[in-house]
């Protein structure tokens, strides 16, 4: 299927690795020009080279910086003169017990996983509406639908974003102008983040990484981790010309792990 995206410009945040990179790859393969951001320049440049190899006709720009800061966002927006597609992403907050979290910890999580995407939506959405095309995809978490106790910072901050998106996506001045805003909720995907957190948990529990992954997969009917490429493919479809009637939705990609009917 031709997604009808050739020549569009996408800003994909936090995209040197993992799910953000999966989204950037899928968009680049569809002929979308991409601006990719991440904190570290070296891995980001390697990712940009991979993206360029997918389609020699597209432009790929990199912006090294922290997207959760005003400077990082300004630099990302400046590199992408026309944002047709915005993929909001940033690192997730650490796990822990809410009894140990300070106000500072909460502010950091809310800044990264709620206010940063809101700021970027604010900066881009009206231009999209004026041009009559816009796609915003926020990478959130399956924990928004099925909260994970130790990820309280994530559950809280991302639920705030989800509530905000539910309202703004339904503004007629956006929806009727072919601007959609949706959230993608990952379950367990095979990324650096999952590997690093599993390794730390395995060391703590005196178990192997594989043992912990197997235990985690017991509740995943698909019986495997998701891949960043399949995550990216769904993101690209949400951004496609065909998806203009799909807005304000929370799409769970979890291999069937969530046990409810809806
Ligand atoms: P990852 O660690 O594999 O990749 C994260 C990417 O984001 C890297 O490119 C990193 O450089 C970049 N990044 C992180 N913080 C940044 C910042 N402040 N500014 C700019 N770039 C930044 O992580 P991932 O697994 O792809 O996760 C992406 C998001 O999805 C995270 O918020 C994570 O909590 C969430 N999530 C992931 C899973 C999963 O299974 N992987 C599940 C649920 C939620």
Write up what this structure looks like:
With 262 residues, the chain is of the alpha/beta class. The chain is built from 9 helices and 7 strands. It has helices at 18-29, 41-54, 70-79, 103-131, 152-168, 172-175, 192-205, 209-217, 228-239; strands spanning 9-12, 33-38, 60-64, 85-88, 134-139, 179-186, 250-253. It has a 7-stranded parallel β-sheet with strand order 3-2-1-4-5-6-7, with helices on both faces. Helix 1 (18-29) crosses helix 9, helix 4 packs parallel to helix 5 and helix 7 packs across helix 8 (209-217). The longest helix is centred in the middle third of the chain and has 29 residues, at 103-131. It binds nicotinamide-adenine-dinucleotide (NAD). Residues 14-20, 37-40, 66-68, 89-92, 139, 141-142, 186, 188-189, 191-194 line the site of nicotinamide-adenine-dinucleotide.
Topology:
Elements: E1 9-12, H1 18-29, E2 33-38, H2 41-54, E3 60-64, H3 70-79, E4 85-88, H4 103-131, E5 134-139, H5 152-168, H6 172-175, E6 179-186, H7 192-205, H8 209-217, H9 228-239, E7 250-253
Parallel strand pairs: 1-2, 1-4, 2-3, 4-5, 5-6, 6-7
Helix pairs in contact: 1-2, 1-9, 4-5, 7-8
The structure holds nicotinamide-adenine-dinucleotide (NAD).
Nicotinamide-adenine-dinucleotide binds next to helix 1, strand 2 and helix 7.
Q: Cα-atom Rg, whole angstroms?
A: 18 Å
Major β-sheet profile: 7 strands, parallel
What structural class is derived from the secondary structure elements? alpha/beta
N/C terminus separation: 27 Å
Residue-averaged pLDDT, rounded?
97
Let me know the number of strands: 7
Principal-axis shape equals globular
**Beta-strand percentage?**
5-15%
Number of helices: 9
Series of secondary-structure elements, N-terminal to C-terminal: EHEHEHEHEHHEHHHE
- Across the major sheet, the strand order is 3-2-1-4-5-6-7
Please estimate the helix content: 40-55%
Low-confidence stretches: none
Bound molecules: nicotinamide-adenine-dinucleotide
